[in-house]
Design goal:
Length: 303
């Protein structure tokens, strides 16, 4: 499997994306539970059937492009492969020197958000990002090597990782968070997400409240086929600063308000390109039990 992964890392997107679209449809056809989640969640969000079909293909493209992204040489620039829209929002936030949280949903190429940030802003303010290690040892090592590169500090989703994020924000650096995943039991609260209650992380709002950092919303738009040829790039990174009112609501001591605001912000980003969101993820499941609790996060934030 590792040999196949590294072989695919040298393939161009012109081959990986069509292969990925096919894999996406195979997964949709062969997995009843996956198919059920995609259908239910896209209907919940009000998407059309065509948008659902596009989402199935994009989920496969996301998987197929991972070997190329994770195998990207550290000394090779992304260059014109990536274009930016709204980079000034990050510039302005970093100029305030109070730390920055980048919130990115599981949409499009979220791996490219970190890579693009590191290349453009990493020397100025490195990004610390949490990740959950893979169960397969070979894949876990690939993930560490891929995500721990110049301008990015990858930290495991443990108490040590939370400490690393807090230290980074206090130094005026950047933290990257994917807030639309179900957190461990005790680290979330139930809040509306596309009109349905979802267990939502409280860690991101707590970090905003404790540090007073700026908040920027980002997504990595994946271009394929004709769109890639027309734009002359492979990905477009979109960045926008959260409003002052939204930053204040995230920092609120009212957990219901802060988590509802977090989900509303993610909804606004997702609906900019809903066909690239991972609708097959079981966003509405209950939390898993883990040792790290919200009390741990509060204690570290006060230290």
């Amino acid at each position: 499997m590792a040999r196949l992964f590294f072989m695919l890392s040298s393939w161009p997107l012109a081959l990986l994306h069509p292969l990925g679209a096919l894999l996406g449809w195979l997964a949709y056809a062969l997995s009843p539970s996956y198919r059920r989640h995609v259908r239910a969640h896209t209907r919940q969000a009000g998407l059309s059937r065509w948008q659902r079909w596009q989402a199935v293909a994009h989920a496969g493209r996301m998987v197929a492009e991972l070997p190329r992204l994770w195998g990207w040489p550290r000394d090779r620039l992304l260059g014109e492969r990536v274009q930016w829209q709204g980079a000034e929002a990050i510039d302005e936030a970093l100029n305030q020197a109070k730390g920055l949280i980048i919130l990115t949903p599981h949409q499009g190429c979220f791996e490219m958000v970190a890579m693009g940030y590191a290349e453009r802003f990493g020397a100025r303010a490195p990004m610390t990002a949490l990740y959950r290690p893979a169960r397969q040892p070979w894949l876990a090592q690939v993930m560490v090597d891929a995500r721990d590169r110049p301008g990015i500090q990858a930290s495991p989703a443990t108490l040590a990782g939370v400490r690393a994020m807090l230290r980074a924000l206090k130094r005026g650096e950047t933290v990257g968070i994917l807030p639309d995943q179900v957190p461990p039991d005790g680290m979330g609260a139930w809040a509306p997400f596309f009109g349905r209650s979802a267990y939502t992380m409280t860690m991101a709002p707590k970090l905003v409240a404790q540090t007073g950092c700026a908040v920027v919303l980002m997504r990595g738009e994946r271009l394929s086929g004709l769109a890639r040829w027309r734009r002359g790039c492979e990905y477009v990174l979109h960045a926008q600063r959260a409003s002052a009112d939204d930053e204040a609501a995230l920092a609120s001591s009212d957990t219901a308000q802060s988590t509802a605001t977090l989900n509303r912000l993610m909804e606004s980003v997702i609906m900019q390109a809903p066909e690239q969101y991972l609708w097959g993820y079981n966003r509405y499941k209950g939390p898993r039990a883990e040792a790290l609790t919200s009390a741990d996060v509060r204690g570290e934030a006060r230290s």
